[in-house]
Structure formats: C-alpha cells, structure tokens
C-alpha cells in the first residue's frame, strides 16, 4: 500500500509500504496514484514528499507479482508523468535503496535527497527487461547518454556519492532523509507556484534536445521485449 499523510505546514507525505523492501505491487502503484491525486487536488497542499517505510525507499517492481500477472492495469510510467505534470514540487526521500521502478519513481520527482549509505540502480537487465517507466528518458536527461547507458546496461547499483557526482540525486545527508526532505519541501513550498512552474518549464525546454519524454521506447516495444525475455512469461515457457 501507500499511506497518505497530511503534514503540518501545507505538505503531504506519501509513504510506500510493502515489506520487506517496499516493492511496487499493483496495490502499491494504486496507492501512490490515489495519494498523488489527493495531494494534487488539495489546494492547501503546497509540496509533496515521497518516501518508503521501515528505512528503505523501494527495490523496484514487486517481482512476486511478475509470476502471477502477464499484464498490469496500472502503469508506473503514467504515475511518473502525473508527478511531472503536476505544478506542486515533489521530493523523493531515499533511504537505503532506490532500484528499478523505485528509481524511476524518484527520477520523476523534482528533487531527490538520499542518505549517504543509500544505493541506486537499474537492475532490470538482470531480469531481461528494460526500465520501461520513463527511466530510459529521465536518466539520460540528468546524466547524459553515455553514463545512462552504462548504468542501464550494466544493471549495477551505485553509491549515493557516485549518484550525487553524476547528478542523479541532488543532496546527500547523514541524518534522516525523510526529515531533510520535509524541511526542504517546506522551504521550497514558500516560493510561488508560478516561479516553480517557470523554472520547471525552462528545465524541460533545455533538456528537450534529448528528445520527448516518451520518445525512446514505445509501450508496445517494451511489452514485446518483456514477454520475449522474462522466463516463464512467454508462451507458457
Ligand atoms: C510487478 C507489479 C506491477 C505493478 C504495477 C507496475 C509497477 C512496476 C513498474 C515498473 C517496473 C520496473 C521494473 C523493475 O523494477 S525490475 C527491478 C526489480 N528489483 C530487483 O530486481 C531487485 C532485486 N532484489 C535485490 O537486488 C536484492 O534483493 C536487494 C533489494 C538489493 C536486497 O538484497 P539483500 O539485502 O541481500 O536481501 P535479499 O536479497 O535477501 O532480499 C530481502 C528480501 O526482499 C525480497 N525482495 C527483494 N527484492 C524484491 C522485489 N523487487 N520484489 C519483491 N521482493 C523482493 C527478497 O525476496 C527477500 O525476501 P525474503 O526475506 O522473504 O526471502
């Protein structure tokens, strides 16, 4: 599930909860979508923080569900688009791990604050799939194409320090990243939404040289690749 909490000072907190690693199941994905809707439509909410429960952000898609479903009626990519379309700033508070779909969710946010011991990565390649929820578009926009390809093709996890140097995360903290993200969200929510929108539009314009957000891989291609490559899902193999 994803828990929605209305905090003091005009903030909303969305907390992923799915032990042991807060993986994104269909229930978690629905919870994030519904929580976002609440936060976006509540005029008193000025900024949003997304975090994970029990000291971990998210280890990606819930691989237990890969075994039981062939298609999903909810797409993480649509949630990432919704975060990016919305005018309120969204901060990802990364504890321990942001992998696969978890990293895509964080990349969709406007800011990422991670604990110094955290690790991020796209391990999809080890499962024979691609980061299909905007990861292949958002990562190169942040770090450039060669570094993005290296991470996506190798599937390696990198440290918060390397992620900071590459530009994947914005800030490293030794304290609780959720508390730090709340403080940061409070600070930026004081700015006018017009200023924030202008800034995010300018950033989007600047990075449009890398192509439109949905440009690299069509949904059909991802699904085709997915069914061909995940053992047991293709033609009942
Ligand atoms: C499928 C649902 C669809 C829902 C709607 C759409 C959402 C999906 C959208 C996007 C999809 C993106 C694709 C991906 O994200 S693919 C990437 C998936 N993630 C991984 O491949 C990570 C795999 N796990 C690991 O690398 C490690 O387990 C790690 C998280 C680093 C933890 O390592 P370690 O500390 O050594 O501990 P264990 O390996 O023993 O794991 C601890 C327990 O956690 C369970 N686990 C780990 N990862 C997942 C996961 N992704 N989903 C579910 N469960 C996971 C693991 O089985 C252990 O459980 P247990 O203690 O019960 O054995």
TrEMBL record:
Catalytic reaction(s) noted: (3E)-hexenoyl-CoA = (2E)-hexenoyl-CoA; (3S)-hydroxyhexanoyl-CoA = (2E)-hexenoyl-CoA + H2O; (3S)-hydroxydecanoyl-CoA = (2E)-decenoyl-CoA + H2O; (3Z)-hexenoyl-CoA = (2E)-hexenoyl-CoA
Membrane-spanning residues: none
CDD domains to which the protein is assigned, alphabetical: crotonase-like
GO molecular function: (3S)-3-hydroxyacyl-CoA dehydrogenase (NAD+) activity; delta(3)-delta(2)-enoyl-CoA isomerase activity; enoyl-CoA hydratase activity
Alphabetized UniProt keyword annotations: Isomerase, Lyase, Multifunctional enzyme
InterPro entries found in the cross-reference section: ClpP/crotonase-like_dom_sf, Enoyl-CoA_hydra/iso
Similarity comment: In the C-terminal section; belongs to the 3-hydroxyacyl-CoA dehydrogenase family.
Name of the protein in its database record: Peroxisomal bifunctional enzyme
Species: Bos taurus (Bovine)
Lineage: Eukaryota, Metazoa, Chordata, Craniata, Vertebrata
